[in-house]
Design goal:
Elements (H helix, E strand, L loop, with lengths): L2 E8 L2 E9 L5 E3 L3 E3 L5 E7 L12 E3 L6 E2 L12 E5 L4 E2 L12 E5 L7 H8 L5 E7 L2 E7 L3 E7 L4 E7 L2 H5 L9 H6 L1 H7 L1 H13 L6 H13 L1 H11 L2 H10 L4 H14 L2 H14 L15
Parallel strand pairs: 2-5, 3-6, 5-7, 6-8, 7-9, 8-10, 10-11
Antiparallel strand pairs: 1-2, 4-5, 11-12, 13-14
InterPro entries: LRR_5, LRR_dom_sf
Protein name: Leucine rich repeat-containing protein
Pfam families: LRR_5 (PF13306)
Length: about 300
């Protein structure tokens, strides 16, 4: 069992095009090099059309910097694929490479050169679902959440008209990614709409921008902090329900959680029996909302 590939050649020499994988595999790590029958080492440059189409076993995919082409429908309809890691070396992204991967949630991209964002546009354009994009580049790290959206097409047969309506702010957020740059200011300007369209996504948008504040202006920072402070009970309940422990710890580090939000968190954590997080919130409570010794701040009998 292992990778299937075809030997190809272009003006740069011989290379391998991956055409599939024999056997089941959850975490697919595409190699930089493969060896042909003659013992020749070939760089892997292309993922072939339909190479992993419809695979139900794939949960994550990692592509090396040698890959420059993803042919059409190469990972189409991989229903359990949730995480992709790749480089900006991909210059050709054919139609539907990651389309219908309805579990896709997170994409890590290593940007080796400035102004190479086309691959981000292509992947985001292939999915209308919520996606967390984590970028690693020379000037630092960046995390951006792109909410989902619904593209509704309604046909008026009598009038011979087709009406296309987009619901949700996810499409507008995607338009902030250009071929050569990301418009961070425009991205931040969409936040007010996100708080109305999808408050859960707004929580993650705010946390991402505050934790990785690339080109974050003061007005946007204040808006994100204000939202997280005012919506503390909702935000912390959402994060606990989703099991987002890393984001919960960061939220606490901001030191903006209200007394009521802290009480809400402790109430939920007691029911979930999560002692480590409970200890963190108790410490936060003691630091920010100290009580007299004879008073009990969090009364278990209230549960």
């Amino acid at each position: 069992m292992g990778f299937l590939f075809e030997e190809k050649e272009d003006r740069n020499g011989k290379y391998a095009e991956i055409t599939g994988y024999e056997g089941r595999i959850r975490h697919l790590l595409i190699p930089k090099m493969v060896e042909n029958e003659a013992g020749l080492i070939l760089p892997v440059r292309v993922i072939g059309s339909h190479a992993f189409d419809g695979r139900e076993d794939l949960c994550s995919v990692e592509l090396p910097e040698t890959v420059h082409t993803l042919r059409s429908f190469s990972f189409f309809n991989c229903v359990h694929l949730s995480h992709i890691r790749l480089f900006d070396s991909i210059e050709e992204y054919y139609d539907g490479s990651f389309r219908q991967c309805r579990s896709l949630q997170e994409i890590d991209v290593h940007l080796l050169r400035e102004g190479r964002f086309q691959i981000l546009r292509d992947i985001l354009g292939d999915s209308d679902r919520q996606i967390l994009l984590h970028l690693t580049m020379e000037k630092g790290e960046c995390a951006l959440l792109f909410p989902g959206y619904v593209d509704k097409v309604r046909e008026n047969t009598m009038a011979r008209q087709i009406h296309d309506t987009i619901e949700g702010c996810g499409y507008s957020y995607r338009q902030t990614v250009g071929r050569s740059q990301i418009d961070f200011r425009l991205y931040d300007k969409h936040f007010q709409r996100a708080t109305y369209d999808t408050k859960e996504a707004a929580v993650l948008i705010a946390l991402c921008r505050l934790r990785y504040p690339m080109e974050l202006l003061d007005w946007a920072k204040e808006e994100y902090l204000h939202f997280l402070k005012e919506e503390g009970e909702f935000s912390i309940s959402f994060l606990l329900e989703e099991g987002e422990e890393e984001w919960i710890r960061y939220y606490l580090s901001l030191e903006i959680l209200s007394k009521e939000a802290c009480e809400k968190a402790l109430s939920l954590l007691w029911k979930q029996e999560r002692p480590e997080l409970t200890a963190l919130f108790l410490a936060y409570q003691e630091k920010h909302f100290p009580k007299k010794k004879e008073e009990m701040f969090f009364d278990i009998s209230d549960l």
